[in-house]
Design a protein that fits this description.
The relative contact order is 0.13. The protein contains 14 helices and six strands. By secondary structure, it is of the alpha/beta class. The chain has a four-stranded parallel beta sheet with strand order 1-2-3-4, sandwiched between helices.
């Protein structure tokens, strides 16, 4: 065993020694009547809602899903499970959060939470329109449809209890900049970067208030990642280090989101918690061996610079658990495990 491998193994042991205590977590969830998880967002939490859409923002083919149950692609933008799957599993509800638009979705699955998320979506409805995916406003429409189905299944009163005790999780924002503002002419003509961030904050405010009106009383918002560190972005900009300009945009936006949540928590009487993944991901990319990884500069699929459709049918790295990125944009399940543990800790701190 060489020295580098030994260091990585020791790091893995250290990371997992600090992992969430699952029995304690499940007892905590039961004590706080946490019923299920409702997921809204983009490819970071989309389990396959895009599969039947006329869009190139879908991955219902191998090698995506290579490490999912039975090695089958489901539409998840990773080699295995997503953070929301891992969170639901840790809470003891289900091993994977299903896509609401899955034609095989069962009545039993409706009771334990579903995902309305759509890869390529954003807080700005224009972002979803550009990729022909499901906007956040449409995701909320689907949630209202879900509530009606749940009411018919268990009765209106019981359905209201399930929704009230559920955790609403919101994870998106990167596409608003990388697939909209920085590449399309519409928004950049209307707003400076700072004003566009304010525009997105107004949209988030509207959607959180709409969720509250539909029964949301527990809300988790995942912060934006340092998207200047995404392998594809670094390759397109011809740099080997993270793009500080892009990262500053993400960091500034995150500070505005945190300020908004503090305000809405008081005005709406909603329990909300913010999961800061920016610092965690930045540290992982800069110090991969600290977290048990050996590669953080490229993806595991193909040459490491492919993603989505361009990854279809390509070979992958053999040591997938040692890669931070699965493709040139999205994380591996191993990285998502670390992110999900941070989210669970935030949940416990908020509801304690």
């Amino acid at each position: 065993m060489n020295l580098i491998t030994l260091v990585v193994l020791l790091a893995v042991l250290l990371v997992h020694s600090q992992a969430i205590d699952i029995p304690k977590l499940r007892l905590f969830a039961a004590k706080n009547n946490v019923s299920c998880i409702y997921v809204f967002g983009d490819s970071s939490v989309d389990p396959g809602n895009n599969n039947n859409l006329e869009t190139d923002q879908k991955v219902n083919f191998l090698p995506y899903g290579k490490d999912f149950y039975h090695g089958q692609p489901t539409g998840r933008f990773s080699n295995g499970r997503l953070p929301t799957d891992l969170i639901a599993d840790a809470l003891g509800y289900t091993r994977a959060i299903p896509a609401y638009l899955d034609p095989n979705l069962t009545s039993e699955q409706l009771l334990h939470g579903v995902s309305f998320a759509s890869g390529g979506s954003g807080y700005d409805d224009l972002t979803a329109h550009l990729s022909n995916v499901i906007s956040l406003s449409k995701q909320l429409e689907y949630f209202r449809e879900y509530k009606a189905k749940l009411g018919r299944l268990v009765g209106k009163k019981k359905a209201e209890q399930i929704v009230t005790n559920g955790v609403f999780l919101l994870s998106m924002g990167t596409n608003d900049f990388l697939q909209n503002y920085f590449v399309e002419p519409t928004r950049v003509k209307q707003f400076t970067v700072d004003k566009y961030q304010d525009f997105l904050i107004s949209a988030i405010t509207k959607y959180i208030k709409a969720m509250h009106a539909e029964g949301a009383r527990r809300l988790a918002v995942v912060g934006m990642e340092p998207f200047g560190c995404i392998p594809l972005i670094k390759a397109l900009r011809g740099v080997s280090e993270c793009d500080e300009g892009y990262n500053k945009v993400a960091l500034t936006f995150n500070s505005k989101v945190k300020a908004l949540m503090a305000t809405l928590q008081q005005s709406l009487g909603i329990k909300s918690f913010y999961t800061d993944i920016y610092g965690l991901i930045l540290d992982t990319v800069n110090n991969p061996t600290k977290y048990g990884f050996m590669e953080a500069s490229k993806g595991c699929c193909g040459s490491g610079l492919e993603f989505g459709q361009s990854c279809k049918g390509l070979p992958t790295c053999a040591n997938r658990s040692q890669y931070v990125y699965w493709d040139a944009v999205h994380f591996t399940e191993e990285m998502y495990k670390i992110i999900s543990e941070q989210a669970l800790q935030s949940l416990m701190n908020t509801l304690a």
